[in-house]
Amino acid sequence: MKILVTGGLGFIGSHTVVELVNAGYDPVIIDDLSNSNIKILDQLAKIIGFKPAFHQLNLCDDKAVSEFAEANQDISGLIHFAAFKAVGESVKHPLKYYHNNFYSLINLLNAYNGKALNFVFSSSCTVYGQPDKLPVTEDAPVKQAQSPYGNTKQIAEEILKDVVAAGSAYKIVSLRYFNPVGAHSTALIGELPIGIPQNLVPFITQTAIGKREKLTVFGDKYNTPDGSCIRDYIHVVDLAKAHVAAIKLMQEEGFNGYDVFNIGTGNGSSVLEVIKAFEQTTGVKLNYEIGPQREGDVEQVWGDVTKSAEKLNWKAELDLSTMMSSAWAWEQYIAENPL
Ligand code: WQD
Fold first, then answer.
1. Is the pLDDT of residue 144 over 90?
2. Which of 36, 53, 56, 144 is most buried, by the most CB atoms less than 10 A from its CB?
3. What local confidence, expressed as pLDDT, does residue 55 receive?
4. In terms of DSSP bridges, do strands 26-31 and 2-6 run parallel, antiparallel, or are they unpaired?
């Protein structure tokens, strides 16, 4: 069964390609290589034993997308990762984010309109902003987005709901990721930030390997037990498996329309706890200092994952220590084997 994976050479996309193959699906990758590396295709081949089908395609080019769909009608599912996702950059370049994230989504939906496609959308806990109640459930109010990036996720979910409400043949699931971290157990694929990492864990591993001089903890005066921000970190392999579970759910009788799930562990970890877990797991002392708070950060958020366990039949299995050890193994691999 062919599953189209847009952004399939990216961090979460590549791990999802592996889990799709493990579950007996046949992934077809689309990627425009604007934020990924073609060499990940060879890395995937080392893990799954063959090079998955790959098409370099800019999803904002509606003609190219409809030509692709014409030539690839035998797709039964679609997992849509391809989007710009840097919170800070989206504040500086909102139009770039609205153009890319909406044109790509709408072109895909138009190209396969009318086909009973199982469509998985990569959403984010960013839609919750700072929840009033923790852990946050899927029916918590979606708050005013803190960034154009977060806004594109909120509006995209509304677009998908409207498409289903209009009676389209699509079945759609939005997965609201919490914080994806870690790497595949083979250390052959992982997070490949371009330039200075925006996110915590790649900054930790690049500091540990000496690529960065020190980590700055963005604030320790929050209203949390140790003063640093709390997030729900989830291993990228657990996250990848949630996409397979979503495809399976939509293949079942009785699934109709649209649903949304929190994809996290249900546990919150502070920045200082993540640093401690990294040091204890790897034995590497991390050079860090406390700095000013970062604009737009929410203080604390972690997910209620009851609905995912009960309805998506999925739950995270890997712990924070495994997240740290796998992220570190990948950083060491990439230092020895630059792509
Ligand atoms: C985590 C915590 C920082 C870097 C964003 C998006 C989310 C998803 C993941 C795409 C925060 C602190 C960070 C550093 C630090 N994106 N931090 N020093 O902002 O929770 O989520 O990325 O899928 O949608 O919103 O992740 O890793 O940037 O930050 O202290 O050098 O680490 O302040 O508290 P975030 P993050």
1. no
2. 36
3. 98
4. parallel
Whether the per-residue pLDDT at 86 is higher than 90: the answer is: no
In the block, which residue shows the tokens 């009788």? Answer: 253
pLDDT in tens, 118-139: 999 999 999 999 999 999 999 9
Cβ atoms of residues 190 and 334 within 8 Å: yes
The CA 75 to ligand 1 mean position distance, Å, reads 34
The encoded tokens of residue 98 equal: 């609205």
User: Among 85, 154, 294, which residue has the most ligand 1 atoms within 8 Å of its CB, making it the best to mutate?
Assistant: 294
Which protein residue has the closest C-alpha to ligand 1 atom 21? 179
Q: Report whether residue 297 contacts ligand 1, using a CB cutoff of 6 Å.
A: yes
Average pLDDT, the chain: 96
Q: What is the pTM of this model?
A: 0.97
Q: Which two tokens stand for residue 215?
A: 């980590």
Query: Is 149 noted as a catalytic residue in this protein?
Result: yes
Q: Residue 286 carries which DSSP code? A: P
Give the chain's domains with CATH numbers: 2-182+234-264 (3.40.50.720)
